[in-house]
Amino acid sequence: MENIALAAILVPFAGAALTLLAGQKAAKWLCQLFAAIASICMAELAYTYAAAGKVAHTYLVAAVGDTTLFGLTVDSVSVLIGFAVVVLGFLVAVYSSAYMSEGNREHPHEGTPRYYAFLLVFIGAMAGLVLSSTLVGQLLFFEITGGCSWALIGYYQKPKSLASALKALLVTHVGAIGLYFAAALLFAHTGSFALSGLAGLDDSAKTLIFFGVLFAAWGKSAQLPLHIWLPDAMEAPTPVSAYLHAASMVKVGVYIFARAILSAGHVPEIIGVVGSIMAVATLIYGFILYLPQKDMKRLLAYSTITQLAYIFFALSLSIFGSNLALKGGIAHIFNHAFAKSLFFLVAGAISYTCGTRSLPALKGLLKQSPLLGIGFCVAALAVTGVPPFNGFFSKFAIFAGGFEVARTHWMLLPLVILAMLESVASFAWFLHWFGATVPGETSEVVAASSKVPLAMQFVLVVLVIMSLGSSFIAASWLG
Amino acid sequence: MNTLPLVLVSVLLYVAGAFASLLLASNERLGIRCAGLAGSAAALAGLAASAPALLSGQTLDFASSGPFPFARFVVHFDLLAALMVFVISLLALAASVYSLSYVREYEGRGAWAMGFFMNLFIASMLALVVVDNAFYFLIFFEMMSLASYFLVISEQSNEAVKAGFLYFLIAHAGSVLIMLAFFLLYQHSGSLDFASFRHLHLSTPLASAVFLLAFFGFGAKAGMVPLHGWLPRAHPAAPSHASAMMSGVMVKIGIFGIIRVGVDILGATTTWWGLLVLAIGGISAVLGVLYALAEHDIKRLLAYHSVENIGIILMGVGAGMVGMATHQPLLAVLGLLAGLYHLLNHAVFKGLLFLGAGSVVFRLHTKDMEKMGGLGRRMPLTALTFLIGAMAISALPPLNGFVSEWFTYQSLFTMSLQGSFLIRLAGPIVVVMLAITGALAVMCFVKVYGVSFSGAPRSPHAAEAREVPAPMIAGMALLALACIALGLGAALVAPVIAHIASQLAATGAIDVASQTLVYPGSATRTALSTPLVAILLAGGLLVTVVLGGLYREQRQKRRHGGDAWACGYAHDPRMVVSAGNFAKPLREMFAPLYRLRQQADPSPAMRHSLSWLTGAASWMEPRFDDNIVAPMLRGIHWLGRQVQRLQHGDFRIYCLYIVAALVILIVLTAA
Amino acid sequence: MQTMIFLAILQALVLLAVAPLFSGLSRVLRAKMHSRRGPGVLQDYRDLVKLLKRQDVATADSGPIFRVMPYVLFGSMLAIATVLPLVTTRSPLGAAGDLITVVYLFALSRFFFSLSGLDTGSTFGAIGASRELTLGVLVEPIMMLALFVAALIEGTTNLGGIGLGIATGHYVSPTAIALAGAAFGFAAFIEMGKMPFDLAEAEQELQEGPLTEYSGSALALLKWGLALKKLVVAQMFLGVFIPFGQASEMTAAALAFAAAVAAVKLLVVFLLSALVENSVARGRFMLTPKVTWIGFGVASLAFVFYLTGL
């Protein structure tokens, strides 16, 4: 298993080097090939892990003396999330091969090897972060993803893109200070960077380390007060937004927080309190900021912020003792990745075919392109949590867990109720835009739109199916 | 065959019909037929499952662990579930048969989607009423709202989309309230099974909180005042067979939920719950029918009547809940009997009326009653079935509407006989509301039938109308016969429903019928025999016919022709009273209640706050960049510029720096 | 049991037979009050025979409802006549003699009466129908409340049962029964369609309202049915609230005595109503609610007295 995991991490890096060297024509195929290989590796890892009875393993990769520097953790959570991020990376690569072309009406541009190389590096970095068992390992891949995101957000190299890329890099790097601090503190107390060492620490040390991790998580996952980079990061090409800002980079934050909780055993309740309050504050702030948005991608960016707040809320609730909330939060990471990617890729298809992302200009999408209409609908329902789509099941588990712990910590009850109310409000807002955009007579922009390429259609269909089924996969996998 | 497998077969047939419709999207004719036939077969399976269960009185259970570890998939097929399955299946049968012709109108305009969503809609309702676990209940509840949302927006016009938005929003908000109620129960019982909820002993404030949440959550689905705003917009927008299902069955799911939570799970232990239900029932009944009178769109009118009838059902349920709280078994059973009987009856006659309206719209392509007229002679079968439906909903003896309203009156009467001052005050007040409602309903349906089917045609379309195809007539006829059967057969139906009521109220058996009589507990109090009333009416008719035959030889044959009398002027079609004017005097007499609609409308306030919030958000968005990041950057640049002062560019100064640093270090190390 | 059925049919047929007599009586009383001689109490029989010999004419637009309405109206009045307590304290056919059943049978006749007004396509018929229904909305609550208060006091909603209770002296609160009786009498007077409330027919304004287009045998039956309705409404009031004199055992003597008392009571009621109707003009339609509110107020007062037990 250790070798499969290492392969899953290293193959994309190797592929990136090859892609850079190959010409423009071969780049996109190489990217898809290596992403596919990495996906197969992750699938193989999952299969092997399940066949071996789902027993968690930690492997040592590099150590200096007694200090563990890098290691691998193979358990249910890392395999599940790892599978999601790598497979989504593959789907995004396939989608990009069609999107980054001259046929794109919004940004006609042929994808350069640079793009595909950075995408592969990103896939590898994500796999590495998810499977990492030490804080230093996490830190390394954290910074690599930061760098890649700078490159990819500023890909079009316009002034606005470059400014947004720099902003993203700086804000997430400021967040990274927390992780540096946490790693240093862990080393100071245990002499090693391994996360398993968290369990043996006393409460005050744990609190400080967790605050560090939490700060970094907020930065990477665009939570209040470090959320400012995400809406502007929409300057990136849409497949990048789908991958980075829906499926993977923003999930880094919640993942490191979840991993810390899983490794620490008992977590001091103050972390839960701070986490919950900030999560609900972000939730409400994120919703209010939906209202003036007319650019579809900016709306989706704020939606990502609120959905991540749900996950943070779930993880904070689990600190008070709810296993159900923990499972719900992790399932939500999995579900939301697919649902939000679908939504972003639909937005990308819309801008590819119609040349605009402005919601008021769009109407009658269903008539012109049933696939896009259905995709929009499924994505909206999945993200806002309407059964039978995936978002509902994880949100339900989160709320149920919240009520569970609210029995003994009654101050949590208003927060849970606020979260439920926000869920209704989000639903209303997305339903409003669905009604304005999808049914009815086509507007001029939509009527003049071109056809959706086959590769993009394929990816959208796969994501629609996953939006229906991913919650069942997550539930049966996590147990 | 056994009951539970039949229910499963029914659900699977609906799903199969849905996917058949989806897959046959390119051959819509075949798809419509498949969807309709699958739906009918499924409905027959549902009837075959529920009818024996209702008659035998058994409760069936099934449990299995589902894919989710926190919720088991539990099925609890008690008598209430059996009744709901029966109602759903009966209406689904009529609607599916009806759809075989009706949906042809939509060929090329999304008929395949209609078949898909309609069958999924019915399947989710069926699944909803039999599951006994909060998680699965909510899933099917939301799926029901989702499927019907797509049916509502099927026309894809602006009005339909807006109606759908309001509908789905209120439905979803309602389901979140229900979720809250279930979570409060889950908190204390540790499991999401209804069975575990039933065994809880909650403190009164907590139980009341759960009840209120569930009541308003399910009430939003039922369309009771003040959460009824979506009904008159959503039901007309959907195609008529879907409106029939929505108005006939879906709003009953709201009532089902209130009974499940308030009566079954919580046990209706507190008196003021029942009084609240009664109050809202009375208000919904009166306002519903009053607003219906002001409409001239036939489907909007029927939608408002659903609000009215939900009010009447709630009156019965409220009386039953009061009976349970005050430990009066007779009252509890009578009230629930009245409510459930009216639930069944309303489903039947409202479904019939919507199908009739659909037939009219099918031929005339308009829902405006002012453009109808004279259809009674051009569409005789539709007119006849519509008349039966109109008589049933106006609660005219001996049809079914009358029997359930009679029971409602009897339950209110029983409630008023004893109890606290508040209860004895409330009873007759609600009776008066019910009486007003009845009279207003008579007025409204005379208007509907009279303006649509009687008199002269008011538009060219009306003059050219023909009768509708056979499947549509079959669907309507089935329901019309059911109206008559449920009315005349009251003595057979009432004991079955009373059994359901006594199971819910956990009381012993209460006698409500014998031979052809129905009575509230004992025949010595009072009794009703619908067959007897029918015989008396028939006898009276016969006597009249005989009297009319007197002197027949001495008079000429009946002449049918010529204009109506207009005081010597030539009769002009514009002289005929329109739908709006027919009810105008009443609208003026009740003007304050009509003004209430505008005064209590929350949308202007909500729109205003939404635009304020949007403005605040637009202001907020750049604040972080402008007020935090930009000053920081400016500060850093300033700092950089200050540090830059050190860089003069003159290397002699740099040498001076090196010397100065050396001197400082020497001084420090020496010290 | 068989005697009761026989009695029920007999009482219906008797009421049927004497209905034109009473409407003739009203005509004579009106004439007398107008200082005229009047046509004689048997005039309405002569009118009916004359009409039965005339041709039936229907407008081109009318349909089956128009044809059927006189029969339904007459039939439902006969049905009500069979169940009213006329000579016996108990209703002859108790299974249909519930107050709710009777009130809704009236609604049935009102439904068809108004519907036929719309069916002809005649303006007057339609407006008459609209007025009839509006009046029904205003009056039915008064009837229901008054009867309900009486029912609550006597513990049953069966008309005969209420009558029996009042006859044998079971009243919790005499004032409540009296007020309820007054309110119901007021409502009954309105239902009888006499001035000032003959808004549906409104001869001078609406040319007879829903009756406009009827002629020949249909008109004869309709007039007869409406006459029977007046009688039935009056008897409903008398049978429930003034049941004294009705027979409690089924002996020939008691029944004969009860029949005589019933005839006298009906005569008194028609006399009083003739006095009232000929002293007033038709009410303005839009001001009718003000009057009916008074009736409702009296019924509410009865309810309050019942609740407080005075």
Explained architecture:
The complex is a heterotrimer of chains A (479), B (671) and C (310). In chain A, 75% of the residues lie in helices and 3% in strands. With 479 residues, chain A is mainly alpha-helical. Chain A has a two-stranded antiparallel sheet with strand order 1-2. Chain A is globular and about 65 Å long. In chain B, strand 1 and strand 2 form a beta hairpin. Chain B is built from 27 helices and five strands. Chain B is globular, with a radius of gyration of 32 Å. Chain B has helices at residues 3-23, 28-56, 79-102, 111-130, 134-152, 158-189, 194-198, 204-222, 231-237, 240-265, 271-293, 298-325, 329-364, 375-378, 380-393, 400-417, 421-453, 460-463, 470-488, 490-505, 530-548, 579-582, 584-589, 591-599, 603-620, 623-644, 651-670; strands at residues 60-65, 72-77, 513-514, 517-518, 559-560. In chain B, strands 1-2 form a two-stranded antiparallel sheet. In chain B, strands 3-4 form a two-stranded antiparallel sheet. The relative contact order of chain B is 0.07. Chain C has 310 residues and is mostly helical. Chain C has one domain. In chain C, helix 2 runs antiparallel to helix 9, helix 3 packs antiparallel against helix 4 and helix 7 packs antiparallel against helix 9 (216-241). Chain C starts with a helix and ends with a helix. Chains in contact: A-B, B-C. The interface between B and C is large, with 89 and 93 residues. Strand 5 of chain B pairs parallel with strand 1 (57-58) of chain C.
Summary of the model, kept short:
Chain A is 75% helix and 3% strand. Chain A is mainly alpha-helical and 479 residues long. In chain A, helix 1 (2-21) packs antiparallel against helix 4, helix 3 packs antiparallel against helix 9 (238-247) and helix 3 (76-99) runs antiparallel to helix 19 (454-478).
Radius of gyration of chain B: 32 Å
Largest sheet of chain A: 2 strands, antiparallel
What is the approximate shape of chain B? Answer: globular
Q: Calculate the terminal CA-CA distance of chain B, rounded to whole Å.
A: 104 Å
β-strand number of chain A: 2
Q: Return Rg of chain A in Å.
A: 21 Å
Query: Spatial order of the strands in the main sheet of chain B?
Result: 1-2
Number of strands of chain B: 5
Question: What class, by secondary structure content of chain A?
Answer: mainly alpha
The low-pLDDT segments of chain B are none
